[in-house]
Task: inverse folding
């Protein structure tokens, strides 16, 4: 951030009065600009014993597999965002079920929220951001070609829980830098 | 948003290529500026059969009661954010336990994440943003003087679950406009 999005004046990093960390503060109008983590919402669309994965047509991770997921937008609930991403990336309508995985990624300022979901039809297709979308049985999951550690971890929990016959929320963190 | 935070040029609302909703796009450098929901992290600090509430010293809702909670910051996990807010608002150290409540507020672009937590000491105080912090038994909870619907709802679930002897994650939404 170099300029104030409100007045166009220059900004500098300083700790505002009553605050305890540096913020971008406008030297002209005094506006304080906060930057906060983004939420990534997605789901595990289930059809009998198979789940829907999408192969990415965009960077990062072009060509690798993932669950339908993306940045939550203003004006929607977490479940609505997860359903919207599934429609956009896989042309698939789902009923969103329980929250299944919440993963904080503090070094890239993201929080993943992945729900279980019921896939409602088989005539899905793929959107512009996917090369293909298809159903996988557990033994077909392309574990080594997963786009993201969040998705890999979520699916590892998923199949372990399925073998145990009960699904529980999994909350965890992924760090990219040593602490 | 009136100006590009990158180059200081004017921005206009338009739907970028490959996108499906209006974004602030810089007329000079072409930067696309996204605006996404913010996460509010907090906790229910428990000490035996009582919980810790704070009375707000700032607007909005000056003088009303709430759980320690606030905007998640870059560089932290959801649990770290909840613990930090508790330290800032109530001078209290906690061990964060399970996620207990997730509430989407799509009309104000927020997602609340409230954890159960174990309060670690009784010599807490209150920070600059609180008038006081104190422990409440269930029959003392100031239900009519709660600052936020999210907190009121979370505590209603909490005491209902406690009577039933088992706590479960509660996911819900609060709308401010008709749909």
Result:
């Amino acid at each position: 951030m170099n300029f104030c999005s409100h007045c166009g004046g220059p900004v500098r990093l300083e700790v505002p009065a009553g605050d305890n960390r540096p913020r971008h503060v406008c030297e002209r109008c005094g506006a304080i600009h906060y930057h906060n983590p983004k939420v990534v919402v997605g789901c595990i669309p289930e059809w009998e014993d198979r789940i829907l994965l999408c192969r990415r047509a965009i960077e990062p991770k072009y060509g690798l597999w993932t669950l339908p997921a993306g940045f939550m937008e203003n004006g929607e609930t977490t479940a609505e965002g997860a359903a919207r991403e599934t429609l956009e990336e896989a042309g698939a309508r789902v009923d969103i079920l329980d929250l299944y995985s919440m993963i904080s990624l503090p070094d890239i300022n993201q929080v993943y929220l992945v729900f279980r979901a019921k896939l409602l039809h088989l005539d899905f297709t793929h959107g512009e951001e996917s090369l293909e979308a298809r159903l996988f049985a557990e033994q077909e999951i392309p574990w080594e070609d997963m786009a993201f550690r969040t998705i890999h971890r979520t699916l590892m929990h998923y199949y372990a829980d399925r073998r145990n016959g009960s699904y529980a929320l999994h909350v965890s963190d992924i760090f990219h830098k040593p602490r």
About this structure: Chain B has a mean pLDDT of 97. Chain B touches chain A through 43 residues (CB under 8 Å).
